[in-house]
Amino acid sequence: MDLLASHLSSIKIPGPQDKVYKDECIFSFDNPESETGLYVSLTSFLGLGRDHVERYYNKTRHSVFLHMRRVRHEVSSPSLGDGPEKKITRLAIGVEGGFDPDISKKLFEFEDSYKIVILPDFTQIPWPNLDLPEIVQKSVQSILEIQSASKLAELETLSNTWDGETRVVSRYANNLVQLDNGIKIPPSGWKCEKCDKTDNLWLNLTDGSILCGRRFYDGSGGNNHAIEHYTITNYPLAVKLGTITKEGKGDVFSYAEDEMVEDPNLIEHMAHWGINIANMEKTDKSMIELELELNKKSNEWIALQESSGQLKPVYGPGYTGMVNLGNSCYLNSVMQMLFNIPDFVRKYVNGASNIFDQSNMLDAADDFSVQMAKLGVGLVSGKYSVPPPEGSPHDADSPGISPLMFKTLVGRGHADFSTKRQQDAQEFLLHLLTLLERNNRNQTNPGDCFKFQVEERVQCNVSKKVKYTYRADNILSLNIPLEAAVNKDEVSAYEARKAELEAGGKKMDQQAVVRPKIKLFSCLEVFTQSEIVEQFYSTALNAKTTARKSTRFATFPDYLVVQLKKFTLREDWVPIKLDVAVEMPDSLDLNAFRGRGQQPGEEPLPELIGTPPTPDMDEGVLAQLQEMGFPIEACKRAIFFTHNSGVEAASTWIMEHITDTDFGDPFVPPGMESAAFVPDPNALPLVMSMGFSQDQAVKALKATDNNVERAIDWIFSHQEELDTASSPPPPEFKDGDGRYKLIAFVSHMGTSSMVGHYVVHILKDGHWVIFNDNKVALSENPPKDLGYLYLYERL
Predict the structure, then answer these.
(1) Any bridge partners for residue 468, and if so which?
(2) Active-site annotation holder among 329, 449, 460, 635
(3) 460 a known binding residue?
(4) Cβ neighbour number for residue 560 with a 10 Å cutoff
């Protein structure tokens, strides 16, 4: 007690505004269930594992800790498993409300023990202990009772979510017109008014009609009568019968807004049709549950998870799984892939000790480099990948690591990645590369291993003069030409047979699906093939004409990420995923696609002098396109390339070009790219307000097409270039031979990037390994043709 008395002045009691890290170490994945437990500082409330608590003490001199240890005991229960089947509500694996086909039904109880520990000698004092000073007792009691920082972060991501997806209040909910047509809806016995369907029924809240929903891709669902009714009447809101609860919740779809919505007045809207919601019970499947069911029975789900066989689990360094934090499988897959790249291992694993030592201990939970190092060491070290105890079930999993601190940090302030909704893995990779650039100013950035330069050659068709421009990219995004399928006859026969069965009221066996097969070379041809550029402003003619444009690689990166653009929109603007198989080779030679720059005998187009002519834009059409939700720059492109011929032509152009890499980039009419740069008058003062000079701000905005956020990042990552303007800037792109080998691929199962599940296959020690969240096993049949993102390493 005398030793403790000398430290009482440093002990604090956590209040509502304090973050208490009692679930996990801020530098590692040690937690109270780890063999050495967790040490929580009674000064800063930071949690530390045994490997890091002394480092923390040496740097801060905070000496008093609450040591937390939890032991898990399995409890046998003869009644366990006799209850109702677990209800699945989320399209994810291994999360609360999610789907886990291999989960063993177990029941656990926990035994918690606590001690007061004083460093540097790890002197222990039992807890609870009434002889302890009052401030120590209050501090420890508050730490035990207060919500942990991790739990608060998790609750924040769950705000405004239901069943795994965010729903906004419909703009029609508060002023919905409901007809007084005498219709009263009975409590049961519902049937579609236009067919014999008795399930998947939707009640239109305006006129009381009951009609069946959309037909799903496997032939199930409805006959599209509800949506057809909307096209005739324009009555916007419908609720799915059988999903309504007495709390006034249910699946409400807005046809006008084309999304699932919230109707805060659902109780009143149902009462108009004689329905007392207080007596309602949910009996039908929600849209999330239906989507899940479709995925579960599809052969894509089985193939990508390799769930048709019994895979052999693997453990040890480099084979650590990651807990799914509620639709975080997109993050898990990308990070597993990145930490198999030597540049990332060198920076964040081999250099972890330096990162930890140089960090501000008190801000470690919010330090990007610290959390990257923590995740990297956790994945690569093998400390958290150990075989289950002897005698465990054959399908027992290693618990893996929980990347909650990392996910909270990288998603902070981002409209999508700060939530628990499923996200697109390619978009997350780009977001992470932006964070890497921002947090590695004037330092080695491991993300540079992906960066490459694209050469675009444009030749005026009249003067034959050429212009070469270059742009940077991190991912090779490839469109998939369905017309290049090598099995068109088989696909046609399959589609005909499927239609025949559906006409007879039967469903096609999902195991018999025939996908179009495309060769990667066909996708590369689309990327590099020349195209005609309409309305090209030729500086040689000082007039508009046509030109021919071709695209090539100017440099080849050390690691090439290939994205197959499977997510697109149907003709009716419904998001879908192309169900195709692309033959991805183990070895890839791209040297034939390298650009050569200006060649002997080629005459360059003159530089644009003076102010270029302003393209005509129909402001009315521009406004209408923006109201549809399209980016303004994409709208300008559409109007320009459709010659101001109206909304229909422009919207059709948008749908055809929505997957273009420059879809939302600032629009510059073809041929005018070399015009004198004019900084955005609104963006310039914003950048200068960050403390940068006007010259720096102009240069940064020019390099980033007047994008303020990117401009600020550009300044920090090009500081040496700005400080030594007279010396040539260092080369930004690594380059080498264009031959590669496939070392990893991320796959997605589901009909949309916003739902479903991601897994990653990685080539390790000559064997393919599947990382399915916390399940890590040797792959028996890696589905290389069904992937979404592919990682190639230079030979």
Answers:
(1) 457
(2) 329
(3) no
(4) 23
Going by DSSP bridges, is the β-strand pair 567-569/575-577 parallel, antiparallel, or unpaired?
antiparallel
Backbone angles phi, psi at 522, to 5 degrees: -65, -40
Integer-rounded Cα radius of gyration of the chain:
30
Is residue 162 within 8 A of residue 249, CB to CB? The reply is yes
CA distances 109 to 31, 71, 147, 269, Å, are: 17, 9, 21, 46
757 counts as catalytic: yes
C-alpha 558/C-alpha 184 separation (Å) is: 67
Per-residue pLDDT for 675 more than 60?
Answer: no
CA distance 384 to 321: 8
Own/partner contacts of 693-700, CB < 8 Å, gap of 24 or more, are: 696/722
Burial (0-12, 13-18, 19+ Cβ within 10 Å), 413 = exposed
Is 195 annotated as belonging to a binding site? yes
One-letter amino acid for residue 141 of the chain: Q
Share of the chain above pLDDT 90, in %: 43
Q: What pLDDT score does 286 carry? A: 53
Poorest-pLDDT segment among 137-141, 166-170, 475-479, 616-620: 166-170
299-387+396-449+738-794 belongs to which homologous superfamily? Cysteine proteinases (3.90.70.10)
d(CA 290, CA 747): 21
How would you class 762 by CB atoms within 10 Å of its CB: exposed for 0-12, middle for 13-18, buried for 19 or more?
A: buried
Residue 353 in 3-state DSSP? helix
Is 635 within any annotated ligand binding site?
no
Which of these CATH numbers, 3.30.40.10, 3.90.1300.10, 3.40.50.261, 3.30.565.10, describes 2-146? Answer: 3.30.40.10
Indicate the DSSP class of residue 422: -
Query: Residue written as tokens 């291993």?
Result: 449
Residues contacting 595, CB < 8 A, separation 6+: 455, 457, 552, 553, 554
The closest alpha carbon to 573, from 647, 651, 635, 634, belongs to 651
- Rounded to whole angstroms, how far apart are CA atoms 318 and 339? 9
**For residue range 238-289, what is the model confidence (pLDDT) as tens digits?**
998 877 776 777 889 999 888 888 898 998 998 898 887 765 555 555 555 5
Residue 111 CA to residue 328 CA, distance in Å, equals 29
Structural contact between residues 746 and 787, judged by C-beta atoms closer than 8 angstroms: yes
Domain boundaries, the chain: 2-146, 299-387+396-449+738-794
124 vs 119: CA distance, rounded Å: 9
Helix (H, G, I), strand (E, B) or coil at 142: helix
Which residues make Cβ contacts (< 8 Å) with residue 370, sequence separation at least 6?
A: 26, 27, 355, 356, 359, 364
Annotation-wise, does 225 bind a ligand? yes
> Would you give the end-to-end CA distance of the chain in angstroms?
64
Pairing of strands 237-240, 161-162: unpaired
Known catalytic membership, residue 329 = yes
Please report the DSSP string for 682-745 in residue order.
THHHHHHTTT--HHHHHHHHHHTTT-HHHHHHHHHHTHHHHHTTTSPPPP-------EEEEEEE
Whether the CB-CB separation of 443 and 488 falls below 8 Å is answered with: no
The set of long-range contacts for 46-55, using a CB threshold of 8 Å and a minimum separation of 24, is: 46/21, 46/361, 46/362, 46/364, 46/365, 47/21, 47/22, 47/23, 49/25, 51/27, 52/25, 52/26, 52/27, 52/28, 52/356, 53/119, 54/119, 54/120, 55/27, 55/356, 55/357
Nearest to 201 by CA among 223, 232, 180: 223
CA–CA gap between residue 138 and residue 66 (Å, rounded): 12
- Residue 85 pLDDT greater than 80, yes or no: no
Catalytic residue among 62, 269, 272, 757: 757
